[in-house]
């Protein structure tokens, strides 16, 4: 097919020999060297697919889909046949599938149903340098599995920049294969100081390059979709005002995770002749997606990072400095086809002294409730969660927080053992809170409604313009004839909207007229169907099939639905302050919060006060601490949960009779501070 020869091809025999002789190996190669797209084909050709599939994990959904397409194209087959992909709620594989790209989350779920992963002969843990939460857990699980399934199972861990020695040590000193990159030199240019606005600074730099530098595409890193859109609007305006004919044509393209596939295809397609492309991308272009033709990289040195604080239960999505490893990766994107340039919009001293050497792994900055439930449900022999084989240990605080969350939703008992309920929860591809709510809904005869709510919450947003601009979202919601949630909250509104859509025979025009995202609505419908199937399949044995499916159609009350949700969201309840409309989150997390302006209006009493108790889906700090996706609940439902919280004994939950050694906690706390701040200054002051 005349495909390019990639650096990895020269190492085919070395790789195949190493894999033949060892159960595990680490493979390090520059981004673009062919790890993701070629390794699987290499093993396929070498005959490994005779005894099982080749599974390649990706931390990101888009990457899994995009590389599966690419590999199918290279092999001249249809996606879903010899080459397929599997991401949450979307399985494009068949019995024919020999090479399967899947998210790390999907492979983790497969462990639940087949702990030894027998369908695979080779598992490639790709993009391990990203250190996503799920990849880290898989590393620990595969570490146990390789010795069990020796010699049939081969595991390859690949990375662009990973600390290979550390990974090799973790896997019993397995060999490391290095594929030298075919990288051209990249000249690094630093700014004297940080620009006042990095967005304006980046736009200006892009324009300067465009008017004065020779042809070559420009890759500009921004931190999120919002910013990308702003930068593109600015760039377009500026480009318009350039004198016609003074420089070459330009097309400006966005690239981010939730971009519709047809828009992404424009970035990977052939660029028009004599035209410069400016690609404005999130961090996704740092390693997981490679755009060919880039010669200039503009790096403001920032990334949007989710950070969970177990003390407050709050997630924040903060723009933080990238690490040096990331800065090097970004620069490398400029030297793939010929010598390039990287414009760092920060001083060299900042690079040397302010950036962390490596990014804090996600496992040290995420809520671990889902992860711990998953590990517990695997019932690994002789395992204490606190001693699981983590490549980097999460803090004790995070683990204890996870245990207490699980206890409140009845997933584990007083001694920390998983309950029957917990096992059912783990089987649902949902976070523990929603899983618990679905099971409660079944008992309260409102499963159909709860499925709808869970499905809608699994989408990015069903509203147009949302969730970025609170005000516009509000406008969109009040627009047209959308139902209003009857003052009970967002969840009820989601249900009403979905039901209205169903009444309109799932008409897509109807969505458009009502300011709803067609893609999200279709996705919700699909997710709802899948969740329904799983719930019915998992229902208690012995009940006749017919009765089961009728339970989906039963129309429970909105009250029952809210009660079911309350069972699931016991960790996410908020109590209104006595005399005004602020809320305080309950439990040890007594964070003061406000309801997010995008929320659907709640009923107020004669004094203008909001409901006394609400549950929320998300506690997030943007400009203020806000709760989002809010729904009114009743005090009598909250009471037993409060009692449970009061009587909780965290030592018991952790399954440890002796108190945890204080030294360990101290070290963990230090790690936590590092994880929370992600900045070098704080790091050095705590050490
Ligand atoms: O994984 P790694 O970064 O080592 O490389 P890769 O993703 O396998 O990419 C190898 C080559 O395939 C690069 O030149 C990519 O541009 C190309 N590729 C592509 O054209 N379309 C994709 N969806 C993925 C990769
Ligand atoms: Mg790759």
UniProtKB/TrEMBL annotation:
Q: Name one GO molecular function term.
A: RNA binding
InterPro entries with a match to the protein in the record: DEAD-box_helicase_OB_fold, DEAD/DEAH_box_helicase_dom, DNA/RNA_helicase_DEAH_CS, HA2_WH, Helicase-assoc_dom, Helicase_ATP-bd, Helicase_C-like, P-loop_NTPase
Which CDD domains has this protein been placed in?
Answer: SF2_C_RHA
The GO annotation for biological process reads: mRNA processing
Q: Name one Pfam family in it.
A: Helicase_C
What does it catalyze?
A: ATP + H2O = ADP + phosphate + H(+)
Domain (Helicase ATP-binding) spans: 16-180
Q: Does the keyword Translocase apply?
A: no
Coiled-coil stretches are: none
Q: Which residues form the Helicase C-terminal domain?
A: 202-379
Q: What EC number(s) does this enzyme carry?
A: 3.6.4.13
Report the protein name in the record.
Answer: RNA helicase
Q: Which organism is it from?
A: Marchantia polymorpha
